[in-house]
Amino acid sequence: MDKYPGKTYQEYTGHKRRVLLAIAVITIVLSFTSLMAGSADISILDAAKAIAGTSSRQLNAIVRNIRLPRLATAASVGASLAMCGAVMQNVLRNPLASASTLGVSQGASFGAAVVIAVSGAGSMYLVSAAAFCGGMITTLVILALSKLRDATPSAIVLSGVAISSMFSGATALIQYFADDEVVASIVYWTFGNLGRAGWKEIAVIASSAMASFVFFISRSWDYNAIESGENTARSLGVNTALLIPVSLVFCALISSVSVAFTGCISFIGLIAPHIVRRFTGNDFRFLIPGSALAGAGLLIAADIASRMVIPPVVLPVGALTSFMGAPLFLYLVFRRRRIG
Amino acid sequence: MIEVRNLSFSYGRHRVLEDISFTVQDGEVLAVMGMNGSGKSTLISAIDRLRRPESGDVLIDGVPVSGMDRKAIAARIAYLPQRCEAAHLSVFDAVLLGRKPYMGFSAGKEDVSICRDMIHRMRLDHLMFRDLDELSGGELQKVLLARSLVQEPRVMLLDEPTSNLDPHNQYWMMSAVRNMASEKGIAVLAVFHDLNLAMAYADKLLFLKNGRSCCLCTPDKVDSALLKEVYAVNADIAEADGRRFAIIRKEFTL
Ligand SMILES: Nc1ncnc2c1ncn2[C@@H]1O[C@H](COP(=O)(O)OP(=O)(O)OP(=O)(O)O)[C@@H](O)[C@H]1O
Ligand SMILES: [Mg+2]
């Protein structure tokens, strides 16, 4: 490489690596803040001790049974939604794609609402399975629509808007006819709640996120090729006919699992990739891990905010991400000439 | 060497290519000519199997393309499209994508150094870390050509590779393509609208009219009658610099 003067490719990618490192550091700092913040003030030292189980019994219980699962849920759900957004934006060739803008999350919520209304929120796993089916069916519909001949990127987003309002309407109808207890349970669901998942559920979210991460990162050069259009990617040897549906199935998996255990959390999946893209460009070797870290960081931050705004009340985190996400998104849209 | 045998293609009911056959030897440049909508881009993309031909086949060094998967095709055919979405990706990464058919999970040291050499050869050093969506039309075209070349193909399909280039870069780029083609034994098919550029650099010219092969000839066989038939223009052939030029007359019946 030293044959030529000036910056080398290694130095160029080194810069992007440092960006990833910076995002990782911020996310770790946020994680510790999240362990310390709340109605009980816990110092960083106590938090560390409590994780190891050597603090007082009360602190051990708070950190290990409440704050740590909450943190782990936020991190794995945030990472899942953000990776899902990054990949969907790429394979659907649309900067506005994400689980919540295309109706995948709303489909999952609807699935959950149906089961809650019928069985009365009895089995968490049944509800989660229904949420998963709802998300998966929506993804298949989007995939089928994107294969239609005049499916322009804006037509896809518009169909997403239509699909999500259809599911929201259907969920509202179920609430209208259901009794109070069921309504409360469904509302709880549609707001998004990070405190519901236990370690078993976290293991499911984290392992599906892990599997998807490995798949996405192994295909990152394929996604880079798709950035220049599907035909260009095919001419470079990418089997898009297989890659695109498989990628969307992974997206449906991680977003549905997330919605199934935590409810609807909007905007993280849309914004996190756009923030990272400003620093790394559309190079998926960096965009995938960057989005995962940023998504985790954003959701952890939103969770901290949800507990700090009006303590001891814990605001629904999904409402908060929508509330903070929309202005942030507008800022991103107008700051850059063109997003994506 | 690439052989195209009796290739036909339709968009729905609209027949666009009818029974096209020709052969391009290693190191040879074939110019594909014809009016707008005559089927040039369709021919190029059908050869790369981005569109499935209705009948006929394409053979590369005797092996039919129809039996190959996308990766195998990409290792043999490089395709430079007429239009390309400018991605938010750096020039270096875009050129590296040309190594895609040879990559495992990621780009190796050798891939990086092949691309660095090509970027230098294509005089793109100063743009190396700029994003594609911040390039001029001609700069983007040079980047895409660099990508096609690092693909180390047996055949290059270039759809109007010089349409955005200034006169200097047009002649410089075609010289570079010719050089690479004879050095590496690559068969080149290139679409042109500039008759004089085509006659200067192509070994043979294929004229398409309404999706049919109208004439396949060497540059010295291009004459007024042929240009009248293909392009419906009145043209004179002149000679200078030891080569032939077509001069189109301004007389049009409007
Ligand atoms: N996707 C498509 N669907 C239907 N018809 C098409 C499609 N693409 C091209 N055509 C039609 O096929 C014919 C050949 O198009 P093609 O793009 O091959 O022309 P071309 O020779 O490359 O023209 P130009 O010089 O303008 O690039 C035209 O009549 C065009 O309208
Ligand atoms: Mg064309």
- Reading the helices and strands of chain A in chain order gives HHHHHHHHHHHHHH
CATH class of chain A: Mainly Alpha
Largest interface: A-B, 32 and 44 residues
Q: What small molecules does this complex bind?
A: adenosine-5'-triphosphate, magnesium ion
- Annotated CATH homologous superfamily of chain B: P-loop containing nucleotide triphosphate hydrolases
| Radius of gyration over C-alpha positions of chain A, nearest whole angstrom | 20 Å
CATH class of chain B: Alpha Beta
How much helicity do the residues of chain A have? over 70%
Question: Mind telling me which CATH architecture of chain B this is?
Answer: 3-Layer(aba) Sandwich
Question: What number is the mean pLDDT of chain A?
Answer: 86
**Rg over CA atoms of chain B:** 18 Å
What does this 3D model show about the protein?
By secondary structure, chain A is mainly alpha-helical. Chain A has a single domain, classed as ABC transporter involved in vitamin B12 uptake, BtuC (Orthogonal Bundle), CATH 1.10.3470. In chain A, 50% of the residues are buried. The radius of gyration of chain A is 20 Å and the shape is globular. Chain B is α/β, with parallel strands linked by helices and 254 residues long. Helices cover 31% and strands 29% of the residues of chain B. Chain B is built from 8 helices and 12 strands. Chain B starts with a strand and ends in a 6-residue tail after the last strand. Chains A and B meet through helix 1, helix 9 and helix 10 of A and helix 2, strand 6, helix 3 and helix 4 of B. The complex binds adenosine-5'-triphosphate and magnesium ion (MG). The site of adenosine-5'-triphosphate (ATP) has 12 residues of chain B, from strand 2 and helix 1.
